[in-house]
Structures are given as C-alpha cells and as structure tokens.
Amino acid sequence: MTFQEITNSSVPVLVDFSAEWCGPCKMLAPILKEVASVMGDAARIIKIDVDQNPAIAQQLKIMSVPTLMVYKEGKVLWRQSGVIPAKQLVQMLKGYVAA
Length: 99
Fold this sequence. Notes:
Number of strands: 4
Strand content: 25-35%
Shape: globular
Low-confidence stretches: none
Radius of gyration: 13 Å
Mean pLDDT: 96
Number of helices: 4
Distance between the termini: 25 Å
C-alpha cells in the first residue's frame, strides 16, 4: 500500500515521521501505543522513518522529528512537531473521527 493510498482513507490517519536516532521519537512510541489502544479502529497510526523515506519527508517539508500529521481523505487536517501527550492526541483525533 502506498502512502497516498493510506492517507486517502475515510478514517483519520495519524502519521508519525520519526528517525531511529531521535530521542523524542522514542518517547513518543509508548504515547502512540496508548492513543492506538484508546482509538481502536476509529483512527489509524503509522510510523514513517524519514531516513528510509527521504522523498516523502522532502515532499512534505519535514524539517524536524518527530513531526505528526493527521490525514483524512487525502487532506492534511493537522500538523505539529514534538512530543504531544496521549490525552491531547486522542482528543484531537476524536474531533476528526466525527467530522
């Protein structure tokens, strides 16, 4: 499945742009697991390593990791860099599930 096919979903897709060497990215991993368990099938979470996928990172102008983006039906609904608390991510995603 391509990045475009995944992000064209009618279910919100939270994309985590990260890198192996990134400390904050490692802090985000358990937060995203928690968000995934709370959201279940209502949202999808995928991780993209910017070092392994430089074309996507360049195309989306990912300047720092972690950068989180939410897509729904191919459109970017939200974008933020840094570590965000699980509660805040769940609240934000729930807003896009209903939309």
